[in-house]
Design brief:
Peptidase_M13_dom_2, Peptidase_M13_N, 782 residues, four-stranded mixed β-sheet, 4% strand, zinc, metal ion binding, three-stranded mixed β-sheet, mainly alpha, metalloendopeptidase activity
Length: 782
């Protein structure tokens, strides 16, 4: 199959050249004396040989062609994460490096090594239940009511405003657990350019799972039994710890009944006391600033002063004073209609909201979910893994807010194995818990010389600039966007903040020490103590942004430089490429340009496209909430989006073609994928025009590939993964805003006619259909 489709390009080059009036020469050959480039080319050849199945027809199943031999190998994101974690583990194990590093790096190293030490015998640490019992009792002291499901105590009376305010604030602020209302720190959407540049947002409920689990009947039906059983295991374990006379044969049925009621209460919150995501995509409706007095008049069922007092317990003193004592302080109520409905129904004698006993049980359950790692259940790994899998960062996902309350990181406590050399759970905790100290040790290990760091950042900056220019050229040619809207788009591009690799301050010892000056754990503390102090420190950083004199820092990197990801932040109009992803197999300065643009170019183009999706167009060039697209252009965008929604609605991988992707749920990521590959391809073409073609691969099997074909193969390698189980695929389709990997490749390529040309695909083949969606282009399909 490969010979019929690919080799005419290479085998008949002379004939093709003779028939080419321009006389375009063949691509140059690789100079064997260039050892760096030769090594990089061989690495990519090795990747292709590992994954590509040339017996398949790329025109009718490019996924099977590009990824058919992957077997049980990890996706590129996992491969690179593994490589990075090895570098981090090596640095941490280097005692000479650590002892001479600044204090935050020493703390990061101890954070990891103590996690490894303590979790190796975790049951000993948590076995007597003292840690989880104390957390429950501390909350009980705020609520003044023990957990009814365990104690048998309860009251039908609603919680007083004073108690409810303190309880909700305590859970979000001190226990890192958002519940009935959720606290988020973000930029001041309407006025980010003046102080105070940040604001506190009070949002709708945060549940144990994402809302689609509850709002889609099939998802809830599938997940409910596991959810009830897991929660019952946690609560019954706690009950036995707190009551030595607990009799399972008598009390278990009642306990399970109350847990089931509490989780149905959670289902009720999702379905009757939550705004749909499709509505929440319109941000202006969620900006409703209020003072404490105004909120108290509108929603008196919560004592808002008590709420803020408990919420800001770890905030700097000047922020606490400003929030609690300054009448000018305002916070943003994001869902006023929902909050009003809760207030009305909570006092409804007909029980529309649910009983107070059930509500209180649910608050305790949410606390236990956050602290499940401290519950000595019989199968600790099962509970921790179930939470860990939910909290993994999705690759290429939009970050919805600048800062959210820090949650402890839950994950399986892996042992250090010979094949990895690191503890994956502990390293995850290190990467995201002490993200900049971790990034410092990572960068010191990966690029010891500043000159190499500078070269990397400069190379990637030039690379990204070409992608930006290419996206602007796409906008230039859009027939459905008028000139005034294009000017707004150009302003976003010209004002875009580009964060490359890592924030500058982390490589400066003085600046890094100053950043971590309030992280006070010692190098003798145990892991439980360290975790609590790290969480308090990150909470302190989040709420420190609420200082009334603070202006928005648009170069805030926001997340961990040590994570294999990238993100666009509309509130800052910034795009960030962490150093962790700026490596093979995504990027290497010695790769063929087609390979870099097919992989890392797709990543950059994907994130940039988010600046211009239905959410991105609501934010101006410096991050203010200010829609710049006019109604006619918005209508054109919606026509494009509707085509993509309908197209992906018809991708049905399960149940004999009857269980399909939700095109509306996945539209943002699908449009970003489609726009991303187009801008990446244009950037690649610009690179060729500026610098010429790269040599072909020095390999008898893959040397016949054109650079255009390598571009698409590189794009597919980003998403290649082993075939997920039907259950896992079903869950992803039900709740994930990303389409499954195979359909990210299929949907993107079938809409892109350059793929058809690259692989000589006949019109009407699966990956080159007769008609397709025109995403961010007004081009006519040839």
């Amino acid at each position: 199959m490969m010979k019929n489709i690919l080799n005419p390009v290479s085998e008949n080059w002379k004939e093709a050249t003779n028939n080419n009036p321009l006389g375009v020469p063949p691509p140059p050959t690789l100079n064997p004396q260039d050892t760096n480039k030769t090594s990089a080319y061989k690495d990519f050849i090795s990747l292709l040989k590992q994954n590509v199945n040339t017996t398949q027809d790329p025109c009718n199943d490019f996924w099977a062609y590009a990824c058919g031999n992957i077997g049980n190998n990890q996706q590129s994101f996992g491969v690179l994460t593994d490589k990075n974690y090895r570098v981090m583990a090596s640095q941490i194990a280097n005692s000479n490096y650590v002892s001479n590093a600044p204090l935050p790096v020493q703390q990061a190293a101890h954070h990891y090594t103590q996690c490894v030490t303590d979790t190796a015998n975790w049951n000993k640490t948590i076995g007597d239940g003292s840690i989880i019992i104390k957390k429950v009792q501390d909350f009980q002291n705020i609520l003044n009511i023990p957990m009814p499901a365990i104690s048998g105590q309860g009251s039908g009376k609603p919680l007083s405003p004073d108690v409810l305010g303190s309880a909700l604030g305590y859970l979000s602020g001190r226990a890192y657990t958002n519940t009935l209302v959720s606290a988020i720190v973000d930029t001041n959407w309407k006025h980010p350019d003046t102080a105070p540049g940040y604001a506190l947002y009070v949002d709708q409920s945060t549940l144990g799972e994402d809302n689609p689990y509850y709002q889609k009947p099939v998802a809830w039906q599938d997940y409910q039994p596991l959810y009830i059983n897991t929660t019952f295991l946690q609560v019954s374990t706690l009950a036995k710890l707190m009551n030595p006379n607990y009799n399972p044969s008598i009390q278990d049925p009642l306990l399970r009944s109350q847990i089931t009621q509490a989780l149905y209460f959670e289902w009720n919150l999702a379905n009757n006391y939550s705004t749909l995501d499709s509505v929440r995509r319109h941000y202006n409706r969620s900006y409703n600033p209020m003072t404490i007095l105004e909120a108290s008049a509108a929603y008196p069922f919560i004592n808002w002063a008590n709420y803020l007092d408990q919420l800001l317990v770890f905030a700097p003193q000047e922020v606490r004073s400003y929030a609690l004592n300054d009448t000018k302080f305002k916070f943003i109520i994001m869902e006023p209609v929902v909050l009003q409905k809760i207030q009305t129904d909570m006092n409804d004698s007909q029980g529309a909201f649910g009983s107070q006993q059930t509500f209180i049980n649910w608050l305790y359950i949410r606390l236990l979910q956050t602290n499940s790692m401290y519950i000595p259940v019989p199968d600790q790994s099962f509970v921790i893994k179930s939470v860990s899998n939910k909290q993994k960062h999705s690759p290429l996902s939009k970050r919805p807010k600048v800062k959210a309350p820090t949650l402890p990181t839950f994950r399986p406590f892996d042992s250090i194995t010979d094949d990895t050399g690191y503890n994956g759970g502990c390293m995850d905790d290190n990467v995201f818990g002490v993200q900049y100290a971790n990034a410092r040790l990572f960068i010191d290990g990966l690029y010891p010389n500043q000159a190499d760091r500078d070269v990397l950042r400069n190379n990637v900056a030039q690379f990204v600039t070409l992608i930006l220019d290419s996206f602007q050229s796409m906008l230039n040619q859009l027939g459905w966007m008028d000139q005034s809207s294009k000017q707004g788009a150009y302003a976003k591009i010209s004002n875009l903040v580009k964060n490359m690799a890592y924030p500058d301050f982390i490589t400066n010892d003085t600046s890094l020490i100053a950043y971590y000056q309030n992280l006070t754990f010692s190098l003798t503390d145990d892991y439980v103590t360290i975790s609590e102090k790290v969480n308090q420190f990150n909470q302190y950083l989040n709420f420190a942004l609420l200082d009334k004199n603070k202006v928005v820092n648009r170069i805030d990197f926001l997340s961990a430089p040590g994570t294999v990801n990238a993100w666009y932040q509309p509130e800052l109009n910034s795009i960030s490429f962490p150093v962790a992803i700026l490596q093979k197999p995504f990027y290497d300065p010695n790769y063929p340009a087609a390979v870099n643009y097919g992989a890392m170019g797709l990543v950059g183009g994907h994130e940039l496209t988010h600046a211009f999706d239905d959410e991105g167009v609501q934010w101006g060039p410096t991050g203010a909430l200010n829609t710049w697209m006019d109604n006619n252009s918005s209508s054109g965008f919606q026509t494009m989006a509707d085509c993509v929604i309908n197209e992906y609605n018809h991708f049905c991988p399960l149940d004999n073609g009857t269980f399909c992707i939700d095109g509306s749920q996945t539209q943002g990521e699908n449009i970003a994928d489609n726009g991303g590959i187009r801008s990446a391809y244009r950037a690649y073409q610009s690179h060729v025009a500026l610098y010429g073609s790269d040599p072909q691969l020095p390999d008898p099997e893959f040397g016949g590939y054109t650079n255009d074909q390598l571009f698409f193969l590189s794009f597919a390698q980003v998403w290649c993964q082993s075939q997920p189980t039907d259950d896992r695929l079903r869950t992803q389709i039900l709740v994930d805003p990303h389409s499954p990997s195979e359909y990210r490749v299929f949907g993107t390529i079938q809409n892109f006619p350059q793929f058809r040309a690259a692989f000589n695909c006949p019109v009407g083949s699966k990956y080159a259909p007769n008609s397709s969606c025109q995403v961010w282009t007004s081009e006519v399909t040839p």
